[in-house]
Design brief:
five-stranded antiparallel sheet; Uridine Diphospho-n-acetylenolpyruvylglucosamine Reductase, domain 2; 19 strands; 28% helix; Uridine Diphospho-n-acetylenolpyruvylglucosamine Reductase, domain 1; 3 domains
Length: 300
């Protein structure tokens, strides 16, 4: 592997960065190299260089559905936090991968564009939201996408950035179907509406979330995808696992699809917790829950 300083010429880098500072669960060991590119083309250049040199890498947005390992991560972690620009573009908005979802919701409301109300109160970055098709039970962020610019893994020499429509990508429920590609920029097509109408809808959604979700405690959001025609939270609660705790990790007593860090939780605590939840739910209902929480493997 070339010297890390070689990559630092492309994007700012820090060594041994604690990942617990960058995830909403506040869990994770140190990253060997931690990069924060400032522009989409720099992100593409960095990914291309790392791939060329066979350096392992992972993307990290707001860390809202991510569980890094206690033992840290070798190679490169690429954080999109410096890529926050949002632009007005015709009847929509164009956003870089690191734009936060709260800023996206705020900007859309401010210019009278509807479509992002379901994201109110949701942490995360645009890139991660596109990768997982973040949203509500009956809506996903891809519903508002006009096109997306992706960095492509090296399947075609020389072609690393390409524009795609939703029809070409085929996103699914809680799955952007990116197959290893990385979001650089997204163009959203939205519906013009009076800002007051948009704000009233946001306030109603936020009020309902605040009543039903543990918004004041460190969590990773929903741990599981909802099975067809059912609710993961209902299944976990019906299996008697609401409030179940391992070490500092707990299933929320308010909403059973949320895993909380009650203080001092480790990745090992969370792994043990969700493994027991999944086993109990499958035993009680016959349904194997599918994780929405992305768990990075422990180092070998």
């Amino acid at each position: 592997m070339p010297s890390p300083e070689t990559y630092a010429e492309i994007a700012p880098m820090r060594r041994d960065e604690p990942l617990s500072q960058w995830t909403t669960l506040r869990i994770g060991g140190n990253a060997e190299m931690f990069f924060e590119p400032h522009r989409p083309e720099k992100l593409a250049d960095l990914l291309t260089a790392l791939e060329k040199d066979d350096v392992p890498w992972r993307m990290l947005g707001a860390g809202a559905n991510t569980l890094p390992p206690d033992g840290g991560v070798a190679g490169a972690i690429i954080h999109t936090g410096n890529m926050r620009r949002i632009f007005r573009d015709g009847d929509g908005l164009r956003a870089w991968a690191g734009a936060t979802l709260p800023s996206l919701v705020h900007t859309a409301h401010g210019v009278g564009l509807a479509g992002f109300e379901s994201l109110v109160g949701v942490p995360g970055h645009v890139g991660g939201a596109i990768a997982m098709n973040a949203g509500s039970a009956d809506w996903g962020i891809w519903d508002e996408v006009y096109n997306v610019v992706l960095w492509m893994p090296g399947e075609r020499e020389g072609l690393k950035m390409e524009e795609f429509t939703p029809e070409q990508i085929g996103p699914k429920y809680r799955d952007g179907n990116l197959n290893g590609a990385v979001v650089l920029e997204v163009h959203f097509h939205l519906e013009p509406q009076p800002p007051k109408v948009i704000k009233d809808r946001q306030d109603d959604i936020l009020q309902r979330k605040n009543k039903s979700q543990p918004v004041s405690i460190s969590s990773a959001g929903c741990a599981y995808k909802n099975p067809p025609g059912d609710s993961a939270g209902r299944l976990v609660e019906a299996a008697g696992m609401k409030g179940f705790q391992v070490g500092g990790a707990q299933i929320s007593e308010l909403h059973a699809n949320f895993v909380l860090n009650r203080g001092g939780a480790t990745a090992a605590d969370v792994r043990s917790l969700i493994a027991q939840v999944e086993e109990r739910v499958e035993s009680e209902s016959g349904i194997r829950l599918e994780r929405e929480l992305v768990i990075w493997p422990e180092p070998l």
